[in-house]
From TrEMBL:
Organism domain of life: Bacteria
Domain (Transthyretin/hydroxyisourate hydrolase) ranges: 4-108
Protein's organism: Acidimangrovimonas pyrenivorans
Official protein name in the record: Hydroxyisourate hydrolase
EC identifiers of the protein: 3.5.2.17
Name of one Pfam family that matches: Transthyretin
UniProt xrefs under InterPro entries: Transthyretin/HIU_hydrolase_d, Transthyretin/HIU_hydrolase_sf
Keywords, in A-Z order: Hydrolase
Gene3D superfamilies: Transthyretin/hydroxyisourate hydrolase domain
Group of enzyme by EC: hydrolase
A single GO molecular function term of this UniProt record: hydroxyisourate hydrolase activity
Classification of source organism: Bacteria, Pseudomonadati, Pseudomonadota, Alphaproteobacteria, Rhodobacterales
Length: 113
């Protein structure tokens, strides 16, 4: 079983980004493995059964930040709508942490085990 965690931070206001929609999608098939939202602490933890994953396949982890910014009165033209982390999965038993620091016009995202 893979475990995916994330921590989404609002870098403009210095707060946790609650309610950001996060989707994990298998790129080749378009199959969605999960859709969820960050909690009040800007965190999300999901377990994905190894049987649902394919070693050597590519996946997108999509953060739908446009609605988050719109809800905070910052949904203007040029505001980032989605932040996508595209990765190659080598081990269906991986433990992965993908934190992201947001602003309306940029983001910093990184991966750690």
């Amino acid at each position: 079983m893979a475990v995916l965690t994330t921590h989404v931070l609002n870098g403009v206001e210095g707060i946790h980004a609650e309610g950001v929609a996060v989707t994990l999608r298998h790129i080749a098939s378009g199959r969605v493995l999960f859709r969820d939202r960050t909690d009040a602490a800007g965190r999300l933890q999901r377990e994905v059964p190894a049987a649902d994953l394919a070693a050597g396949a590519e996946y997108d982890l999509v953060f739908a930040v446009g609605p988050y910014w719109a809800g905070r009165g910052r949904g203007d033209v040029g505001t980032v709508r989605e932040c996508v982390y595209r990765f190659l999965l080598l081990d269906p038993e991986v433990r992965m942490h993908v934190p992201i620091n947001l602003s309306p016009h940029s983001h910093a995202l990184w991966w750690s085990a």
